[in-house]
Amino acid sequence: MKMWIIILCLSNGWMHIASAASVTPTPSSQPATPTEDESTQLVDWLIKYGYLPPSDPSTGQLQAWTAVTDAVKAMQMFAGLKDTGVLDEETLALMKSPRCSLPDQDGPTRLLVIQQGREIRRKRRAVSMWTRRNINWRLHSYPSSSHLSREMIRSLVFYALRVWAEPTPLEFHEVSSLEAAHMQVDFLQGYHGDGYPFDGAGGAVGHAFLPSDPARAGGVHLDAEEQWAFRQPADEGTDLFTVLVHEFGHALGLAHSSSRHSVMRPYYQGPVGDPLHYRLGQQDLEHITQLYGKRNQLLPTDAPRLTAEPQLHHRAHRHHHRHGYNL
Ligand SMILES: [Ca+2]
Ligand SMILES: [Zn+2]
Ligand SMILES: [Zn+2]
């Protein structure tokens, strides 16, 4: 048996693992007596987001010591932090911040590469995109309790899709039936049958399935128990528009980005901007137009305004329903 295998479920905490596995001493200001739960949480987090392979059932909770440190380094690199392998406050804060449920990495490929001490680009994912340009969407369920009205939520879905439609030839149409919908937005609670359980306020805020997913393509799931917000200060609730733009990015085929300026960064870090004025950053723009091409003409400008004007209609939608979008 290799000597570097340790049992992480012993009394090691997040900090202990980090300081033991690195030459850099852990600052004394950090918690000194981490719990067993915390070490399990660290490993679970790294597995969940693709930085560590799942534990081998034949060896129980065994994980390689070096693999955990390397996984922390890979997480730090992807997040744009210094890849020290040490769980400093910045790293921990990011690990505890709300985020998308989808993994950042496909598997442990990158980890192995780092262990070998050289930097090789991990394999590109298979291209995942819709072959159609007209995509029907449906808003199927709502948060359990939210101060946002259903009409408001629907408007935010419209504006989040518009972000992706604006630079591309994509057209989105609202429909009411499941059969007609290519994309469906649901607010769900706890375990809901797809392996990405929600966890109440904070933690996982949403996920969506790529167009290449054979059974679940177009599914956009949001945690019904988040305190969803719109035009609130950054520390009050989770900005629904921001999360919708991110999840629709996945639903259209984009993976997570390590760029701090990308809306596809996995961590939720406050509102991206107002739905009326938000535009994709350079990298997101490049990625979406690589998949779908560029729009030749401007989008029709009869989108709803963010005023109290009632019952505005959008041309692309008026055949499907009677209500407009008011923000
Ligand atoms: Ca949550
Ligand atoms: Zn995501
Ligand atoms: Zn789900």
From TrEMBL:
InterPro entries: M10A_MMP, MetalloPept_cat_dom_sf, Pept_M10_metallopeptidase, Pept_M10A, Peptidase_Metallo, Peptidoglycan-bd-like, PGBD-like_sf
CDD domains: ZnMc_MMP
This protein's record includes keyword Methyltransferase: no
Keywords from the UniProt entry: Hydrolase, Metal-binding, Metalloprotease, Protease, Signal, Zinc
Signal peptide stretch: 1-20
Domain Peptidase metallopeptidase: 126-294
Homology family: Belongs to the peptidase M10A family.
Cited PANTHER family: MATRIX METALLOPEPTIDASE 17B, MATRIX METALLOPROTEINASE
Protein name: Peptidase metallopeptidase domain-containing protein
High-level lineage: Eukaryota, Metazoa, Chordata, Craniata, Vertebrata
